[in-house]
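User: Predict the structure for this protein chain, please.
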Amino acid sequence: MKKLLFAILMLLGVTVSAQEETSSQTKKGKFVIEVNTGARTIGDTGGYIRSNDYGTFWSLGFEGGYFTIDNLAVKLGLGYYGSKIVDALEYKLGAEYYIKGIVPIGIDFTGVSYFSEAYPNSNSNWVGVQGGYAYFLNESVSIKPMIRYNIGIEKYQRDIFQGLIGFAIYL
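Assistant: Here is the predicted structure, written as structure tokens:
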């Protein structure tokens, strides 16, 4: 719980201290659609594939958001994780704030619902915090390298650090 409180306070501190500057991509009323690639599936509603001695593991999904005010998007993500022994639905609900229109920081609730014989009626939940940089290729497309920290909510869960690269379209 201390880690969660610390992460929230850090995000709020950075947000409050940032100077307000809005780019046209992150103005109120705009939409964002994003796909991420990452090194783990937890909290990742994008693309992922890995093979080892136990088989091939993959996920596919996306995130979408709506800018409720300049630079602040409310986001929802959905994904599917599959392998030979386990299948799961991944979901994410949160917010992302763009400092100066190019430095996205976010906080979200992330969950995984497993639906297989290996993990019957099993769910895992995290609170995720992330930060990165939006490199705009043009008015509608950005590449977003990010770091993410997932804080396990249940006792048995461990915290997980991720590196992600996002590809976003702004409408």
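The beta strands are 31-38, 48-52, 55-69, 72-82, 87-99, 103-114, 122-132, 135-136, 141-152, 160-170.
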